[in-house]
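Question: Send over one sample?
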Amino acid sequence: MNQLAQVPSSAAPDVDFTPIRATPFVPLDPKLIPARAWLYGRHLIRRNVSVTVAPGGVGKSSLTMVQALELASGQSLLGHWNAGPLRVWLINLEDERCELERRLAAAMKHHRVSSDEIGDRLFVDTGREQELILAEQIRDHVQLNMALIECLAAEIRERGIDVLIIDPFVSSHRVNEMDNGKIDLVAKEWIRLAEQTGCAIELVHHTRKLNGVEASSDSSRGASSLVNAARSARVLQRLSDEELADAGVAADGRSYFSVKRDKANLAGAGGRETYRTVSVDLGQGDQVGVVEVWKKPGLFDGFGPQDLQKVQEAIDGRDLRYSDQAGVNWAGHTIAAILGLSPEKDKRRIKKFIEAWLREGALQKVQKKNPNGKESPVLEVGEWARE
């Protein structure tokens, strides 16, 4: 039977009290201070806890699976530096083992990772087979499962685990997730485990309901003390329809998301990275989503000076209107026909083309009288493009 240590949410028990002493500070030569032991970019670091926050269904589990393969193989599958090959323990507390095997097999197939490249460095477990409840709430008290904690520590040491991934955090405890004191106690126990074993721990967490608001690490579900206790927190956000339209993506936007490290105590906040989920055929009837890097194309990717020249020739002398409110007289219809775009689906991108060409002088906006005597802005050719 698991041993449970009952801990009041407001204070530590008297039996564990140790007198606190003041330690004199002795300045050291900076060169003698060990460098921070980063394991994955500036997100995972030994003896510390990091948090990944995301709305449901965006791709956080798929992302962490690919990253587990990166760390175990030592490869940079998503473009991040890692200290691998490392020993990684992935504990998914929601899915059945067969589903985890499907997703990992699909990721290995898509990213061309062989079994030999992983070796014996990846460990995968599911909460459906082995329950992992670090703490429970009994009335207003938190009970830490000390037997489980000690077992985790022993297994991490015996297996030489470098990175432990818990997905999701909410399934690793049974305390009031809105209570900062209680969640802080659970988070500090994860930190203590990381400190004692020398591994890096990643806790995967959900956001609260966003109602259209952009996600951040502060959007994490429940008490804020989990993110506050982490040394690094990053957030996943589905890309907006507008951003995808600007990039000329006419696909299901649910497949595209960004990752931003917006809480970093030991390094500067990171930039924004973009990914997408692609479907991989396992060859036995299953299609499985796998995360890969997605580089947002530049505005004019796929088009060159010859295309601009064709656009200029098509609008020259026709007094096509600048405003998209002009109906069939809008210049965007002609531009779309020349470039093989849709004036409806690609309207935002076409309008950006026009603005860029105006700034560069390839087009000019001038006022012309309509048959009704009113003036409206039309487009004329400025400096002709040259191939």
Summary: Residues 180-197 form the longest helix (18 residues).
